[in-house]
Amino acid sequence: MDKKNMVFIARSLDGYISDRNGGLDWLNVIPNPEHEDAGYGKFIKQMDALIMGRRTFETVCGFDGDWPYPNPVFVLSKTLMAIPEEFKDKAELVKGSLGEILDQIHQNGYHRLYIDGGATIQSFLREDLIDDLIITTIPVLLGGGAPLFSELPKELEFEHVGTEVFLNELVQSHYKRKN
Ligand SMILES: NC(=O)c1ccc[n+]([C@@H]2O[C@H](COP(=O)([O-])OP(=O)(O)OC[C@H]3O[C@@H](n4cnc5c(N)ncnc54)[C@H](OP(=O)(O)O)[C@@H]3O)[C@@H](O)[C@H]2O)c1
User: Fold this and answer.
1) What is the pLDDT of residue 179?
2) Which residues contact 21 (CB under 8 A, 6 or more apart)?
């Protein structure tokens, strides 16, 4: 079975994925009356499961409305001891090294994994565990916040698969890890 770890994320022009207060309002600065989803719906349908960091999980838990994911969600945290009661049927806490966590998730039949959260993506990249990066750049400079990328122990080369522009403002580029 083809195993893949994929990132699908929006970042500001200066490389942040949330603002200084952890906010995401800037994701909606471009008027989007027809609710263009920039390929998200198609992407999430192709994923078997999500692995997300504790902070992203907490953000999602605070969203109004229904739980947004149709797929199983695995939450990475060293500090969280249990998933809050009301989300127990939505998400599962996983602990251990990334290798151990991935083995366990693969053994459960989930192979195409959506990796979400800045620190989480960075920890996967440090171990060269990301196959695809789909990054949508929003034309706003936040000036600070949670960064998408950080330092790595070595260079990682990716190849450009394609770029699409949505609403004439959102630039989405797909990169694949070079073998
Ligand atoms: N723009 C977008 O499309 C987008 C997408 C996703 C998230 N966001 C936003 O980005 C912000 C969150 O990003 P973030 O970088 O702060 O954090 P994150 O990756 O969501 O969460 C970080 C936490 O995850 C846990 N973690 C990460 N890697 C781990 C590992 N290898 N092993 C064990 N635990 C690990 C740790 O939790 P403990 O401290 O509990 O150990 C760490 O503090 C939120 O504001 C969220 O709303 C934006």
Assistant:
1) 81
2) none
> DSSP state, 27?
G
Look up the CATH superfamily of 4-17+37-165: Dihydrofolate Reductase, subunit A (3.40.430.10)
- Tell me the three-class secondary structure of 36-94, residue by residue: CCCCHHHHHHCCCEEEEEHHHHHHHHCCCCCCCCCCCEEEECCCCCCCCHHHCCCEEEE
The pLDDT tens digits for 37-49 are 999 999 999 999 9
Give me the pLDDT at residue 1, please: 67
| Ligand 1 proximity of 140 Cβ (cutoff 6 Å) | no
Distance separating alpha carbons of residues 32 and 36, to the nearest angstrom: 6
Q: Distance from the CA of 28 to the center of ligand 1, in angstroms?
A: 21
CA 8 from centre of chain? 5
Give the tens place of pLDDT for each residue, 87-105.
999 999 999 999 999 999 9
Q: Is the CB of 10 under 6 A from ligand 1?
A: yes
Kindly state if the Cβ of 117 falls inside 6 Å of ligand 1: yes
